[in-house]
Design goal:
2 helices, alpha+beta, eight-stranded antiparallel β-sheet, globular
């Protein structure tokens, strides 16, 4: 789920500033809520959901939802492998992102609140398992193609709440 400009161009100075502020705030131990845009994590995280992000206070596991910097872009995707490098993938995408260094993982997803008001923890073992199973289902060829949206609109963070 992309939260920044998803085009091939470089993010603006404002986007880089927001990413650095987000990283600094989370590394200081604060929780942050952002409104996510894009379809790569559907159906678990629909476009417009609010994702609560927090510090990474344990070893990452396959199935965790994390916020990461991939190149110059910011994404919220699921961890698919953990080692010297970490591999991520959006639940609705067929291909993994390029591997990232652990230092590029900014935060761990804690909860999501969908646009319809449904809130769910995503940082528990059952949630990781359910997310992994769900991601395998939605990338299966029999899953309806209409769910595979590839929005061309510019992605941006439009809501940030730095909670205390």
């Amino acid at each position: 789920m992309s939260n920044m400009n998803s085009s091939k161009s470089s993010p603006s100075t404002n986007e880089n500033t927001v990413m650095e502020l987000l990283k600094d705030t989370i590394h200081a131990g604060q929780m942050v809520r952002i409104r996510a845009h894009g379809g790569s994590m559907r159906p678990l995280i629909p476009d417009g959901s609010v994702v609560e992000l927090g510090p990474i206070n344990r070893r990452l596991e396959i199935g965790d939802v994390v916020a990461a910097r991939i190149g110059e872009h910011f994404v919220i995707h699921r961890v698919t492998s953990v080692g010297a490098m970490i591999t991520l993938r959006g639940d609705l995408t067929h291909h993994e992102d390029r591997p990232v260094h652990p230092a590029d993982i900014i935060a761990l997803g804690r909860t999501i609140t969908t646009p319809r008001g449904w809130t769910m923890r995503i940082d528990t073992a059952p949630a990781r398992l359910a997310g992994r199973l769900l991601s395998r289902f939605v990338t299966h060829p029999t899953y309806p193609r209409m769910a595979h949206s590839s929005s061309k609109r510019k992605q941006a963070i439009d809501f940030i709440d730095f909670s205390s």
